[in-house]
Amino acid sequence: MKTVQKLLAFVGLLSLSALFIYALQDAPTDENFEKKLINDYNVYALQVPDDLSFSGEPMPLKNPDILERMDRELLVNTYWQSNGLLMFKRAKKYFPIIEPILKKHGIPDDFKYLAVIESGLTNAVSPAGARGVWQIMKTTGRENGLEINDNVDERYHLEKATEVACKYLLRSKEKLGSWTLAAAAYNAGVAGISRKLKEQNVSDYYDLLLIEETGRYIFRIVALKEILSNPGKYGFNFREKDLYNNIPTYKVDVDTPVTDFSQFAQEHGINYKILKLHNPWLRESHLNNKSKKLYKIDIPKKGYYDVQ
């Protein structure tokens, strides 16, 4: 019995020794850690496609300055991976709302990517006071029929804001002659672009020397268009179910004041937060509406939120 116990103890000691030696060999040394890091993560130079364009207007990529500026935007937006994935997710939710409005007004579909670079498809607020997905200034919104005050701000109403953006872009195209210049004017203003064209005695966006923001503007739009149109080519991997979906809603007509939107929401089977998520243009907890104007408030269809 003692002989067997000694034999088992010896075998156990050999096993432990073997495990210890194996562990040492497999330990994450600096050298093999670095090899693993290099093999698992690579950053590649990107080839700028030869046929990039904006709204059917080709980019002069044989010009080395234009090529370098386009290369920069492709690199910056490809390797800002978290932001890129968010753009794919939000585009699935909001492009179906924007696209038919652009089409109705005869605006090229490429302009939906202008909204992407303006706001990241969020209701952003700029330091200058522009608001909403289309980053509309207060004066521009009011001139185009939007209601903007402390109680209601329709710059946050995606459909109405898209209509205003279309009107602005059509006027810009008529005055400046190209969709590329019209897009640049969305950033710098029609007067600003017109002045620069005259001062520099050129007629094309790509020949202008501009401040950095406006100078990068078209390149950023085209970069997002290229990446969002070709996710696999630029290393983005996702499934359809990973993307965001727009929640179906129905509209409730309101032509009287609403004293308490919390109660209003409960009467329609939702809560205050959900009401505001679907109607961000309602800026306060009540609706003044002394003029008895007709508002259409979006209410999500049943079954999409678990409301307590």
TrEMBL record:
InterPro entries: Lysozyme-like_dom_sf, Transglycosylase_SLT_dom_1. Residues 98-204 form the Transglycosylase SLT domain. SUPFAM superfamilies: Lysozyme-like. Belongs to the transglycosylase Slt family. The keyword Transferase does not apply. Gene3D superfamilies: 1.10.530.10. Keywords: Signal. Residues 1-23 form the signal peptide. This is Murein transglycosylase. The keyword Signal applies. It comes from Flavivirga eckloniae. It holds the Pfam family SLT.
